[in-house]
């Protein structure tokens, strides 16, 4: 019997936000297609859901006309997910806010709160109605002190979390962070995602989960547990190495998390995905972006995605120093 070598081409795509004009979106999507993109992520914030639902639906239709798969991103939803979008849900539902250890509230929804879970499911229904192919669960998280320009605080210790913690561990959740609280938070993220992914699957949508880089054993164990879910199709992470206060070694940082995702995707028969940074890149670091692309390709990752389209030029706080050059480098992949 003859044997055949099957070569599966890596899929390529980028994140798209900041534009609601359909005529312009058509041009942008055509440019992506010319760049050999077969995937596009479209952000769908609370504001979009309230005021631009049909507009986004029309943009998705144009992407589908070009045979592009579409991820729908709950951009900044409840601030539980990554993204620069504000959350009106939090403004209207103060009772759903997380509480840090001293009882002070922070403007991020507690993902254990049933009201937020219900809101999330309404968002998933809306994402289905506008024609998305995948729900893209982007960096789901509890309160992260550094993201609020704070330190030495942790969350969540709201009444809901305290009740669930006492039921599971048999004692009152202390104010000092301990291993049981860390385990509780990990389990809460897993349970939340399992619930939401099953719900999306029931609506015949596919699920793509992008976790923050797993820097510790507990986070790596969570990544593996999530990867083992029957309800997800793609597992990924976003090892962004350039930040305003620190720049990690691109080769060590991207390689570490790329290998982890590839290993787990093979173990659980999922597609692997890595997001390469196309924001905050200054001229001197453009070569690092090319190194990241090479690492992703050398590890045979199934999907290479970038944040964001054209070097994030539409958002001044994220834009690369030379967005045009960053885009030109993307074209070479």
What would you say this structure looks like, in words?
By secondary structure, the chain is α/β, with parallel strands linked by helices. It folds into two domains: 11-208, TIM Barrel; 233-332. It contains twelve helices and ten strands. It has an eight-stranded parallel beta barrel with strand order 1-2-3-6-7-8-9-10, surrounded by five helices. A two-stranded antiparallel ribbon has the order 4-5. Helix 9 runs parallel beside helix 10. The longest helix has 24 residues, at 179-202. It is globular, with a radius of gyration of 20 Å. Residues 1-7 have low confidence and may be disordered.
Query: How many separate helices?
Result: 12
Looking at the overall shape, the CATH architecture of the largest domain is Alpha-Beta Barrel
Number of domains: 2
Q: How would you classify the helix and strand content by structural class?
A: alpha/beta
Give the overall silhouette: globular
Rounded average pLDDT: 96
Q: Which range best describes the helical content: under 10%, 10-25%, 25-40%, 40-55%, 55-70% or over 70%? A: 40-55%
**Mind summarizing the main beta sheet?**
8 strands, parallel, barrel
N→C terminal distance: 36 Å
Beta-strand proportion: 15-25%
CATH topology of the largest domain: TIM Barrel
Q: What is the CATH superfamily label of the largest domain? A: Glycosidases
**Which oligomeric form is depicted?**
single chain
